[in-house]
Design a protein that fits this description.
- The chain is an alpha/beta fold.
- 33% of the residues lie in helices and 23% in strands.
- It contains 10 helices and 9 strands.
- It has helices at residues 46-52, 82-88, 100-103, 110-121, 127-137, 142-145, 155-167, 185-202, 237-242, 247-254, and strands at residues 3-12, 20-30, 35-39, 63-71, 93-96, 173-177, 205-210, 222-227, 230-236.
- A 6-stranded mixed sheet has the order 5-6-7-3-8-9, with helices on both faces. The protein has a 3-stranded antiparallel sheet with strand order 2-1-4, with helices on one face.
- Strand 6 (173-177), helix 8 and strand 7 (205-210) form a beta-alpha-beta unit.
- Helix 4 (110-121) runs parallel beside helix 7 (155-167).
- The protein is globular and about 55 Å long.
């Protein structure tokens, strides 16, 4: 088992209101080379759960975490020091964030940013050659894009550069947090196909966060559905898509437009009695 999350709770605190219980007693596991989809609407706790894996959240007392996070057979990540976590961040668990245009530094070239990540986590003598290798792997032209700035790349190219930056450090887990949100349907499919190819060639496990259930078909091995900070259903992708058990999962699936029943009104989450 590569990752084990037990009884994870995340609370946000302020001096004005009661604590916000963003994540409540979440449990899940991830095996080597597996793709786990984390599905749910905005605000369900998906991204916060993912960020907690390497403690990329505000420190206490603004945010408190409890439970157990065990990565690659090691100790509880919640007890690790910042120095210990630096080795995990990027080198063990890497992230692709929702909007590449804001995640990339606009003042630095693509090649420099990828090379910086490599030098931090996987020092090699021929760093530029390594960057060229990864630019090719993600479908970019090394000669053109190594010295390019983020604003000179399209949204799809920026996302490919983010994928190269994340995987160039050879992490065991890649967290893809809504990597297709700002892209059109054609580019969404291209990014999903690229992730599928790299997952097989590099043997990396992927936590794929999305609100779009249609994206997980044929990509994710298992799916975990979150609602209001809780896991309401887990199973294989076929089980979740084919025979959903929880009303919320059923509601998410019913919200997907169908060409076969185009004349029917789409149901909303409010049409279902969830909890």
């Amino acid at each position: 088992m590569l990752l084990s999350v037990k009884d994870l709770c995340i609370h946000f605190h302020s001096h004005l209101d009661k604590p916000v219980k963003a994540v409540k007693h979440v449990n899940f596991e991830l095996n080597e080379g597996e793709v786990l989809a984390v599905v749910g609407e905005s605000g369900s706790g998906k991204s916060v759960t993912a960020l907690s894996l390497t403690r990329l959240l505000p420190p206490a007392p603004q945010c408190t975490l409890s439970g157990e996070l065990h990565f690659n057979g090691g100790g509880n990540l919640l007890t690790f020091s910042e120095r210990q976590l630096q080795k995990i961040r990027g080198g063990g668990i890497a992230y692709i964030f929702q909007n590449a245009s804001t995640a990339l530094n606009p003042a630095l070239t693509i090649g420099f940013q990828i090379a910086e990540a490599i030098r931090l986590h996987a020092p090699v003598s021929a760093t530029k050659a390594k960057v060229f290798e990864w630019l090719k792997k993600v479908g970019l032209d090394p000669e053109r894009h190594y010295g390019a700035y983020p604003f000179q790349l399209s949204g799809g190219m920026q996302q490919r550069a983010m994928i190269a930056m994340a995987l160039a450090c050879a992490p065991k887990i890649l967290v893809a947090d809504e990597p297709t949100t700002a892209l059109d349907v054609t580019l969404q499919n291209q990014i999903i196909q690229l992730l599928k190819m790299l997952q097989k060639s590099e043997g990396v496990a992927i936590i794929f966060i999305t609100h779009n259930l249609s994206l997980i078909k044929g990509f994710a091995d298992r799916a975990m559905v979150m609602y209001n900070g809780e896991v309401v259903e887990q199973g294989t992708s076929e089980q979740i898509l084919g025979t959903p058990q929880h009303p919320y999962t059923q509601a998410l699936i019913q919200c997907i437009p169908s060409l076969e029943h185009a004349e029917q009104r789409l149901k909303t989450i409010e049409d279902y009695q969830i909890l």
